[in-house]
Amino acid sequence: AHNDSFAFLQNIDKWKKIEAGQKRAVCLKLQQKLTSESGAADIDGEDLFHELELLPIVFNSDTTPLDVFNYIYSNNLTSVFPNLSISLRIYLTVPVAVAEGERSFSKLKLIKNYLRSTMSQERLSNLAMISIEKEVAIDTSDLIKDFAHRKARKVDFLGH
């Protein structure tokens, strides 16, 4: 479903080959897909259509969506391409979110195996968070120094 909605953003050559009526319909369909239940839309399909018409003029045929996204943000062109920048941001981040979820379940499977089947839910959650978020975890050397400083039983008589 994700690929169907954003397929036209994958390649500038694909965009060139689509008829004008189809291009507008695809943009309006994406607008409808990105509209919340309250009626607020993330993008304007008609404006997205006009922004995408400029793509073949500005970029080469072999330019990837990530290249377009980086170019727009590095040159502060989000006011020129507001709908395209939002669409690309959504298109480029959704696959990461899916992969991250699958990675989390894979880690959970490694943590909770047959030998640890009696583990409490709280401990399992804490171990999973440590394993999944290990890149963001606290620097252990600072933690050890802080702990040692707080728990030191030496009395400082010299005032250092």
UniProtKB/TrEMBL annotation:
Residues 64-135 form the HAT C-terminal dimerisation domain. GO terms for molecular function: protein dimerization activity. This is HAT C-terminal dimerisation domain-containing protein. InterPro entries: HATC_C_dom (IPR008906), RNaseH-like_sf (IPR012337). PANTHER family: AC-LIKE TRANSPOSASE-RELATED (PTHR45749:SF35), PTHR45749.
